[in-house]
Amino acid sequence: MGYKLDLKVVLDNMDEFLLAVRMTLSVSAVAMVVALILGLIIALMRISKSRILNTPAQGYINFFQGAPQYVLIFWVYYGLAMLLNVNFRPFVAGVISLGTQYAGFLAEIYRSGIQAIDRGQREAAMAIGLTSTQSYRHVILPQAIRIVLPSIGNMWIAMVKDSSLLSVIGVVEIMRTAYLNSNDYFRPFEFYTTAAVLYIILTFVFFYGNQVLERRLKVG
Amino acid sequence: MPYIPDFGPVLRVWNVLLASLRYTFMLAVLALSFGCLIGLFIALLRISRYRFLSVPAALYINFFRGIPQMVYLIWLYFGIAMATGVDFEPTLAAAICLSTQYGGYLAEIFRSGIQAIGRGQTEAAMTIGLTTAQTYRYVILPQAIRIIIPPVGNMWVGAIKDSSLVSLLGVMELMRTAQVQTTMTWRPFEFYTTVALIYVCIVWLSSKGVALLERRLRYA
To answer: In this predicted model, what pLDDT tens digit does every residue of A138-172 receive, in sequence order?
Structure first.
């Protein structure tokens, strides 16, 4: 008995998938903003000479590099919620778990970018009388950002893919939509294939965009 | 009323958690070993001069680069099973999923390793009369292996973390065991914290091992 493919059922629910794409992108975007800011703070702590600052930063990075995202999601949504006695909305729990983990990844990326800037730049900045903060703000970070932008782009792609895990706590993004629909229509093959295709399109677009960005940065 | 953490329930089933690591390691080992076989094969296809070999290989690699692991896992376990009428055993489905996916990642690592070996090596091997197969077997691969060991070590770390996802299919590895225990004791914070820390320890030890290996290879 051959399996009869039914693509009509997918097309009928395409509007739901478009909303789902929007949810995937918005949860990833919010988490990315959190990760970018938190990651920078941790990177600056990590390269600080003071041990009170760099030891916790190192611990943070090691923890979030080692803990699987899937475990973190459960930890935040069920564990942390119980500890703090709050009821997270799935979206918020998703942003916390993705954001904190990617902050750890981004901290290492920032650090490599900052350390790639020649010492002479910092010394020159100091020599013309900039304070330490000013030399970071106006001299080092603007140059480091250029170096790390392609890696940040890769993190964004990974983030979009990882956001699929949030379906387990009920964030209605692409994967969750595929799950709900395949339950309703009992068509797992069609709906999960749709989800897979959407993710591949998204990552392909971002991957290509990232390459264009990388080429631009190299020329400029 | 503040929540008082109680790790007693975790300690009582400590041996169950540790025993479940057997599956975690088994899956990671399977993913990496079959992944290496698949990856080497795909990498050789990918660098072939014939387009009918290199194009499918590139598609394979890009497919796995683009698809989130969770989507692939569910698609395989529910979608493909439905479409083909094959009823996968969860552990088998998990092993297939992880090894085909890591095959894609490893193919790119192998390709970069092989291409990092200078053309002169191939030419010299050909000049002394080795066939293409012999050149690969005795000249290129032994050198390439040195280059690719560190990234393959990172893949091992990734496989350990990614194996937590197959808890979705009910494979009783570390994460699933914690979930089951959580439903019985209603101590999500304690169990997920413990699980996260166990993963962090394994990943930390593995990265130390990889770093050690990397240093050895540099001096050798």
So the answer is: 999 888 888 899 999 999 999 999 999 999 999 99
Residues 6 or more apart whose Cβ sits within 8 Å of residue A72: A64, A97, A100, A101, B196
Residue range B92-111, pLDDT digits in tens = 999 999 999 999 999 999 99
Min Cα distance B28 → chain A (Å) is: 14
Q: What is the ipTM of this complex?
A: 0.88
Which of A164, A167, A193 is opposite residue B79, by nearest beta carbon? Answer: A193
CA B23/CA B21 separation, integer angstroms: 5
Question: Considering the domain boundaries, does residue A3 fall inside one?
Answer: no
Quote the domain boundaries for residue A166. 8-219
Q: Helix B51-66 and helix B14-46: axis angle, to 10°?
A: 150
Residue A4 has pLDDT above 90, yes or no: no
pTM, two decimals, is: 0.89
Question: What number of C-beta contacts closer than 8 Å exist between A and B?
Answer: 140
Please list every residue in chain B whose beta carbon sits closer than 8 Å to the beta carbon of residue A59. none
**Terminal Cα-to-Cα distance of chain B (whole angstroms):** 60
Residue ranges of domains in chain B: 8-219
Report domain B8-219's class. Answer: mainly alpha
Which residues in chain A have Cβ-Cβ distances shorter than 8 Å to B165?
Answer: 68, 70, 165
- Closest partner residue to B70 (CB to CB) among A65, A175, A204 is A175
CB-based contact (8 Å) between B146 and chain A? no
Q: Which CATH number goes with the domain that contains A53?
A: 1.10.3720.10
Contact indicator for A144, A110 with CB cutoff of 8 Å: yes
Residue A2 belongs to some domain of the structure: no
Count of structural domains within chain A: 1
Mutate to test the interface with B, among A10, A73, A74, A197 (most CBs of B within 10 A): A74
